[in-house]
Design a protein that fits this description.
With about 550 residues, this protein is of the alpha+beta class. It is about 40% helix and about 10% strand.
């Protein structure tokens, strides 16, 4: 390895760090030709258009390289090579023969010999096994390769991110004749950490900067990103959305970056369709990017499923949401199947109605006081129950601090509430529902299953993503509270609409005082339950 390659690479960083008094200064280095190119324009130029470039030793200002050239007008463009300098710290100065110039003395670079670099790579950085040690060695030795905070993002990482990056460089052998591979790996690891820690304001710049290192052109969804798939509409918006969706993802390694690259692009394409049929096409073309089984999807009428998903008008960020919507589409096509457990006859006895469910939007007439959530005051009918459950750690708000009391609650969300409210969480619990595998709700649903509280909507499906009905909520609550199934009749005007499996549990809850109907004497068993209603019935059973 020639010494001029070493100095040339380092000088590239040095000139970038300098503050030449010029309108613009651009520096580039071609590793193949070993040329440093400097071009730009001076702010002020004397009558003489000559300017000089010098490389000096930092310790004593010894000039090791000097040359001059002539500016064209006030512009300059100069390339040069270096050979035969000793290992030391150096700086670069550029200035016109008359007038002000500038140098990089405050940001010197260390120029070392090829043998020293080879020794560092082979005997210091190779075959390390401890990430903390490796991070320290990188901090101390990368300067020997002309790398610093101005040209290498590794130096700009936090201490924990440096260790995470260093961990990816462990147990490898390095040498200077393969320095390019070492530098590529360093940039890759720094890029992964930068992307992992990016926010919405920085993620696009980080992704574009390190795109080459991520090696994504061979990925299944790359045609969406590149625009070569002309079936993807709104490609610019799709591309931007996909990159934004890296924020918040767990990017532990390159495999994770590629996984979310594919998933984000497919989700963005589905989110930006013009017609429902595009959803079917996208899923078929990019099905290998989908992390969940497509058995449920393939069992549906795909055209109807596409229309259902299109009608939701979602901006998808998670594959789990798409999976849930496919399950919901299947349920809609099959005409129900949201039952929560065993059946019970309705009977023909007296009626019960007290406490619990209230009509959404009903207020208690108190002077409004703000509580734990931005969107709930003491005027809301469920205020006290929600506050009580918040204090017990059963409920929480969204990222904006809202409880969203009138939003419908999904089956898995309600499962979590029951488990937390009744103390049923079992970290060893298991279940075989396909739609909970690898889903955040798995252990909560498994805990309900282990306690005999749910059997899912069928043997293989819990119903993740499906909004829970009022009768299913009543069924699960009665089981969790271990209320006996009652044979009495219901007095609700729509009692005949209550499913057989739920009737006995609704009677039990009515007799316990946990629920009552609406002002028109209906129970509305098939209506989706709200978060406020869920909170009300649960708190009525545990207070």
């Amino acid at each position: 390895m020639k010494i001029n390659r070493i100095l040339s690479s380092a000088l590239c960083a040095a000139v970038l760090c300098g503050t030449v008094y010029a309108d613009s200064v651009n520096v580039s280095y071609n590793p193949e030709t070993e040329l440093i190119n400097i071009n730009g324009s001076f702010d002020k130029l004397s009558e003489s258009t000559a300017y000089s470039v010098q490389v000096k030793k930092l310790s004593d200002d010894t000039v090791v390289y000097t040359t001059f050239d002539y500016a064209k007008g006030n512009a300059f463009d100069f390339s040069f090579m270096l050979d035969g300098v000793e290992s030391d710290e150096y700086y670069v100065s550029v200035m016109p023969y008359t007038g002000d110039g500038a140098n990089s003395k405050e940001n010197p670079i260390f120029i070392s010999s090829a043998s020293e670099k080879d020794n560092i790579l082979k005997n210091v950085l190779s075959n390390q096994t401890d990430k903390s040690v490796m991070a320290g060695l990188l901090d101390a030795n990368l300067k020997y390769f002309g790398l610093n905070k101005n040209n290498c993002d590794y130096f700009n990482l936090s201490a924990s991110s440096k260790q995470a990056a260093a961990e990816r460089m462990l147990n490898k052998s390095y040498s200077y004749d393969k320095y390019g591979e070492f530098l590529d790996l360093l940039n890759l690891t720094a890029g992964i950490e930068m992307l992992d820690n990016a926010d919405e304001s920085t993620v696009t710049a980080v992704f574009e900067k390190y795109f080459t290192y991520f090696d994504l052109t061979g990925e299944v969804c790359y045609p969406i990103y590149s625009g070569s798939d002309k079936g993807v509409k709104n490609q610019t918006a799709v591309k931007a959305m996909a990159v934004k969706n890296f924020v918040g993802k767990d990017l532990t390694d390159l495999k994770a970056v590629k996984k979310y690259f594919n998933e984000n692009l497919l989700l963005a394409a589905i989110s930006n369709i013009v017609s429902p049929g595009e959803i079917t096409t996208h899923i078929e073309n990019y099905k290998t990017a989908i992390p969940f089984s497509l058995d449920v999807y393939n069992s549906t009428d795909k055209a109807k499923t596409a229309s259902y998903i299109s009608g939701l008008k979602r901006s998808y960020t998670l594959m789990s949401t798409l999976e849930s919507d496919i399950v919901s589409a299947k349920n809609a096509q099959s005409g129900g199947g949201q039952g929560g457990g065993s059946s019970s006859g309705k009977g023909s006895g007296g009626s019960s109605s007290s406490g619990g469910f209230y009509s959404p939007g009903e207020t208690n007439g108190q002077n409004e006081q703000k509580g734990s959530f931005n969107d709930m005051t003491s005027a809301h009918w469920a205020y006290e129950t929600v506050e009580a459950l918040k204090a017990k750690g059963v409920v929480s708000g969204d990222q904006n601090g809202n409880f969203n009391p009138e939003n419908n609650i999904t089956r898995e969300e309600f499962a979590k509430m029951i488990v937390l409210a009744f103390g049923l969480y079992d970290e060893n619990a298991e279940c075989a529902f396909a739609d909970t595998k690898d889903h955040w709700s798995y252990r909560y649903v498994a805990s309900l299953y282990k306690n005999g509280i749910t059997n899912g909507i069928d043997a293989d499906t819990f119903g993740v993503g499906i909004k829970i009905t009022r009768e299913d909520m009543a069924t699960l609550c009665a089981k969790a509270a271990k209320l006996a199934v009652k044979e009495g009749a219901l007095s609700f005007a729509d009692a005949s609409d209550v499913s057989d499996y739920a009737s006995g549990y609704v009677v039990s809850l009515c007799e316990s005082g946990a629920v009552k109907g609406f002002e028109d004497n209906t129970f509305k068993p098939k209506n989706n339950a709200t978060r406020a209603e869920a909170s009300s019935v649960i708190y009525s059973l545990i207070k």
